[in-house]
Amino acid sequence: MLAKWTHPDRLVLPALGVALTIFAWLAWSFRGYTPDDTYIFLRSAQNAAAGHGLVFNPQERVYGNTSLPWAALLAAVTWAGLPALAVAKSLGVLLAGLTIVIAQRLALSIDTRAAIAAPLVMAGFLDLPYWGVSGMDTALFTCLVAAALLATARAPDGAPPHVAGLAWGLAAATRPEGVALGLIALAWLLVRGRWTRRQVVTTISAFVIPIAAIALFALAYYGDILPNTYWAKRWGRVEALHRGLIYMRAFVMA
Q: Does the CA dihedral 95-121-128-63 come out positive or negative?
């Protein structure tokens, strides 16, 4: 009887429940964390809702946020009269929690034990609730990347490849670094599968269209396709390599 109830198949959903409970507790413990970058989004949202444009300062067309979709979403929330900060934090927690759910679905493609371990490991990854409750665009991007990975993994087994292309395109439209991740994933997918020419074209188109739409809007509205943070944080090659090695050392030590 004990073996029946401890069979791996019966532990998949309980493991997810435990993981989400741990995640919710951690998110609640971090509820007071709000970085200054969140207020950049909120300021832009307030200006947009007031008719001054999606900018930090009225009459200054500066691409001052890292995610136009997230800024536009908060602008809509502000225009509707809802508390933008509370909505941003709540939505971030929901998206981060959904990431855990998607991760378990992805792990199921490996085996049942992986599906038990994956959500528990992610629940203990403090960055997920930490940034999820921050009100930033991080949770949206993370959730879209997880969904894109799931769609990519399922494509060789018969799922439409253009779904993966669209998911990566939406992730890349949310944050610029999604472009590099999408290119790597789609290159693997197109090499791995035997697709018709039409499937290849639709997959690439689904990836490119959201990115092109955001880039064209940014170029027309701000005069630049890259956020201002790119120009503010751009360093020389030697300095960039040095900083990168410092980050890598900190990551390895942690």
A: negative
Question: Average pLDDT of the chain?
Answer: 90
Helix (H) or strand (E) holding 166: helix 161-174
Q: Measured between alpha carbons, how far is 147 from 68 in angstroms, rounded to an integer?
A: 20
8 A C-beta contact, residue 96 and residue 139: yes
What span, in angstroms and rounded, lies between the C-alpha atoms of 186 and 205?
12
> What spatial distance separates the first Cα and last Cα of the chain, rounded to whole Å?
42
Dihedral (Cα; 215, 40, 87, 175), 10-degree rounding: 30
Is-contact 72 142, C-beta < 8 A?
A: no
60-99 residue pLDDT tens: 888 888 899 999 999 999 999 999 999 999 999 999 999 9
Q: What are phi and psi of 118, to 5 degrees?
A: -55, -55
DSSP, collapsed to helix, strand or coil, labels residue 68 as: helix
Q: Tens digit of pLDDT for each residue in 194-220?
A: 888 999 999 999 999 999 999 999 999
